[in-house]
Design a protein that fits this description.
The protein is mostly helical and about 450 residues long. It contains 17 helices and no strands. Helix content is about 75%, strand content about 0%.
Length: about 450
Amino acid sequence: MHGLAHDRHLQEPLVSAAPSNRFTGAPEPGGPGRGEPELPLEPRAAVTFRFDRIRGACSGILETGWQTFALLVAVRVYDASPNMKALLVSSGSIGLMLTPIVLFAVSRLNMPTGLVAGRFLFVGAVATAVGVVAHHDLLFILSMMVASIASAQQAPMMVNIYSENYPPRRRGRLLSQSIVLAVIFSALFAFGGGYLLDWRLEMFPWIFASVAVAAAVAGWAMTRMPSSPVVVQLGRNPLQSLSWAWKDKVFGMMLGVWMLMGLGNLIVIPLRVEYMANPALGINASNADIALAVAIIPAIVRMLTTHAWGWLFDNYNFFMIRTVLNGLFLIAIMIFFTTTRLWMLMLGGGVFGLAFAGGNIAWNLWVTKFAPPERVPAYMSVHTFMTGFRGVIAPFIGFHLITHASAGAAAWISVGLIALSMLLLGPARRKAEAVSEARARDEG
């Protein structure tokens, strides 16, 4: 069977012989209807939920620090070259590419996934602290890269914790609360950091000292989450998880959709700071305005809409959700990169925030709708590997396009890739339906 098989006690099918809540939006027999009170969380889920909110709050600081402020410092303090900026932006993606190898190694340690993930964040905290005290351009960029690479290893382990501990009908909504805390702290940190740098640019080490503390606290929270060791297929090849991309046809098609959409996004999303900060591109916005358009407004919109996206993820067909999200990213890119007017940039930032709100939940949890429970970490490692692959090459394409062509050219290439991904969602959905119908006939 094509990876859509499932343990009915832990996971519901993507599609089934009878209509399911994920495919039609209708509640399934025996499950709570809309508006009915939810049962209290079981102990493992409650403990996970409590500490994941601490992790989520800290991750908002980490996201803004390692992405927005690290690039801003590279541009305005160290005058980094395009290749160095691209390396810095792609460092998290390099980390994602390493996740299948790391997952393979972690499975041999027989250690709880929460403990291992927490230790990776401790590495990120130490690396960030080194970058703060170094006062050297190359060492700063390398330290931020190490921190981002280490942090990226969380993804397959966190989805394993969510799959084990959160009930399937509530995963999106439970995760959404951690994401809301992340965007609140991201907005506050971006706001304060932006004004601090406008006041005195040389104060940037204090920003990254805060990032190091946040990484350490997030790592501690992850070690407190109930978890079991990762289990992967026995074998000697650390990249063996990648074989699910062609063994499971539906999963492979969805990876192709994600590749096109993600490549389109990643070509231009890291350019938002460069586009607004570089005077050669005609804007030369203040640090506060950049933080407002790139971090604060998107964060506010994410905060207001994330819970709704979590509910939609739990109750509606994933293919429909993915189509809407891709359309929102397409619109945001067209608005943001085809204007120099600040109010249009703020509007584009708001649409990005709306798309990020749903995209974050979808990125973290979508494999739970396609993978059997015992293969969730393996499927997620394939997804993160592919995310990392496109994330490594896309910033180089984007920075060179904006340097040698124009921001508009980069935007239109991105729009084309995202539009193509939306066209491919139709065949992927039909294939998923065919697989589920064939399984239903076999079981009948």
